[in-house]
Amino acid sequence: MKPQIYLVEDEPAIATLLADRLEAFGYGVCGAARSGETALEAVSAYHPDLVLMDIGLAGDLDGIETAQSIRQRWDIPVVFLTSHGDEDTVRRARTAGAFGYLTKPFEENELHATIETVLHRHSTEQRIRSMERWLTDTLSSIGDAVVATDVEGRVTFLNPAAEALTGWRRVEATGRRIDEIQPLVHEETGAAVASPSAAALASGLVTSLEEHVAIRNRHQALIPIDGTASPIRDEHGRTSGVVVVLRDRTEAKAAEAERLGLERKLKEAQKLESLGAMAGGIAHGFNNLLTGVLGSISAVRASLSPDSPHEPELRLAEDCARRAAALCEQMLAYSGKGHFQARPLDLSTLVRETAQVLGASIDSRITLEVDLAANLPAMLGDSGQIHQLLSNLVLNAAEAIGPQGGRIRVATGTAYATEEDLAATHLAPSMPAGLYAYLDVHDDGCGIAADSLARIFDPFYTTKFTGRGLGLSAVLGIVRGHRAAIQVQSQLGRGTRFRIYFPYAAEAAQSARPKLASSAWKGHGTILVVDDEEMVRLPAQRILKRLGFDVIAVGSGSEAIDRVADPANHIRMALLDWRMPEMDGAETLAVLRQIDPQLPVLVMSGYTESQTLSSFHDGPTPAFMAKPFGVDLLTEKVRQVLGE
Question: Which CATH number covers residue 50?
Fold first, then answer.
């Protein structure tokens, strides 16, 4: 479609001549007017591609005023045609924004060249403005903050994201130095950081921000960021400015912190699992040895009179063995698989009873304060294990305070633990936010250094000159066994606080069966003892014989099956080890029940009952006895299994 031109000329003859020439050039003439007022109405209706405008017109508006209105309202290019070439007229014409200026009379080729030049220039400017609008809209839609500067580092552009990040509006920031609107600091030290825009301008290369950089916005808020500065080059390759793209890292930093926290929890869980497995295995092996030691001591003592000269040595040996058994129990507690007898507990009552005993065990210069909540809902736990946990924490606090004296505060209560609270604890990645019973032990002692704080629960790790370093390891195991979580807060010189979150009991557990007196009880019949360790079989055999039983002792599951299958043996009960090579206790028990479904069986193991029997599903769960054991425990368990 050929370009349309509108004529504004107060001389009709000139207007007609111009129209003929324009059509001869290949343009369309959509109309002509003699006054500015008529011209404005026509341009509004026709929207021509160009207006040829005489400066001197009939009416109130001259050509210059009319041209100003046309450019402002419709952005249509105007070429002035005038016989006035004075300086004032030319100046006014320029201020009107005219694209061309022809002085009458002019040559036809001059008219044609001017029109072509103006149409091309206007088309080019329209494309540039369209591209600028597209670029501005694009930059405004980007989620990252974009700031552009000139070669002197003064701001020429901010997109909305940059306005939000810096706190500066575009109109306020334009012309200011970029360092003023986006001061950068190290997010940890607060030291000033140079803007990458200066380096990009100086080197002509893309420059990235350093790590751990934050912007201090107009409202003095620190916002962690990352980003780059890239030089802007003109058509000759010269650097004419720089564009800085910044990204708010607040959410990314939070996500990274969460990821690192989960990784830490996973590593902690894996470490605890491996160390717990090792501790449990060592404890199991020691318990087998101690079963032989304690059983042999019990058997020897039973054959001696109470005033035997060997009684002190036997008592010392038994005491050493029981202390070794207690150490094994702490190792099992660390593994989270100690001997638990879970039942509903009133935490405040238990802590009150334990604190009364502990008060006499610590230095008199240390004050033990107790602040216990009344009417706490019941929690499901083992009173002996909770007693050990509290004892370890209080004694540890007393050692941290030292001889100068101080204060230990023990408190219980109910608290709502948020996800953030639980994320800061050990062992709680899967615990939901909610109400928990808590136990606090808070001292004003020396505190724990940050590098030690991460290792205090490691077995055998200690900052003391003496001690075996198992106290807090056992605490962690007890917490894990109760499916609870423990939080530690400490500052050097200001003390340490341990808080344990215990879940409430979902339902009441049955009361433990009372112990049976064993002093004068005697049994009868044949008991089969099955254990691959002779050091366990022999003491058990001696004790059972002294109780009046006949005993058959074997070292494997296959031998046990042969003895029970022979009706001539009249096996009344089996004492069965759970961990044996080739054929373990579970496989042996399954076959024994096929042979004699009514055969009473007492399982024994150096591991805990839950760890030993949790995977057993082949029929009713058998009775259990933990190693090591002596006369009293074995007698009690045998009586329970036989129902006597």
Answer: 3.40.50.2300
Number of residues in the chain? 644
Query: Same domain for 152 and 83?
Result: no
Of 276, 280, 285, the C-alpha closest to 577 is: 285
Cβ distance 488 to 456 under 8 Å? yes
Predicted pLDDT at 510: 33
Rg (CA), the chain: 47
Verify that 632 and 554 share a domain, yes or no.
Answer: yes
DSSP output for 32-101: EESBHHHHHHHHHHH--SEEEEESS-BSS--HHHHHHHHHHHH---EEEEES---HHHHHHHHHTT-SEE
Helix (H, G, I), strand (E, B) or coil at 50: strand
Indicate whether 32 and 51 sit together in one domain.
Answer: yes
Q: How far is CA 620 from CA 87, 90, 368, 626, 638, in A?
A: 116, 112, 48, 19, 18
Query: Residue 487 CA to chain centroid, in angstroms?
Result: 16
Query: Do 239 and 275 belong together in one domain?
Result: no
Helix ranges (DSSP H) in 520-608: 534-546, 557-565, 585-595
Residue located via tokens 């029929």: 619
**E strands in 178-269:** 184-186, 192-193, 207-208, 213-216, 222-233, 239-248
List b or e across 599-609, with b for residues whose CB sees 16 or more CB atoms inside 10 angstroms.
Answer: ebbbbbbbbbb
Amino acid at 330: Q
H/E element holding 28?
Answer: strand 28-33
Query: Do residues 552 and 614 share a domain?
Result: yes
> What 3-state class would DSSP assign to 32?
strand
Token pair listed for 16 = 């007609």
Q: How far is CA 350 from the centre of its chain?
A: 35
Distance of CA 377 to the CA centre of its chain: 31
CA distance to 344, 357, 387, 411, 436, per residue, from 372 (Å)? 18, 16, 15, 5, 15
Contact present, 143 and 161 (Cβ < 8 Å): yes
Residue 44, pLDDT > 60, answer: yes
Distances in Å between the alpha carbon of 288 and those of 134, 283, 317, 546, 609?
Answer: 81, 9, 16, 21, 15
User: Are both 362 and 430 inside the same structural domain?
Assistant: yes
Q: What is the DSSP letter of 455?
A: T
Q: Which residue has the higher pLDDT, 476 or 174?
A: 174
- Encoded tokens for 300: 């020897």
Angle between helices 63-74 and 87-95 (to 10 degrees): 20
Among the three residues 502, 537, 552, which one is the final residue of a domain in this structure?
502
**What confidence tens digit (pLDDT) does each residue in 410-420 have?**
999 998 888 88
Q: Which domain holds residue 378?
A: 343-502
Handedness of CA 434, 440, 442, 448 (dihedral sign): negative
> Got the DSSP string for 433-469?
SEEEEEEEEEE-SS---HHHHTTTTSTT--SSSSS-S
- CA-CA-CA-CA torsion sign (528, 531, 532, 535): negative
Residue 327 clears pLDDT 70, i.e. is over it: no
Q: Is the pTM of this model over 0.90?
A: no
CA distance 458 to 328: 16
CB 8 within 8 A of CB 63: yes
**Are 294 and 629 within 8 A, CB to CB?**
yes
Residue type at 310? H
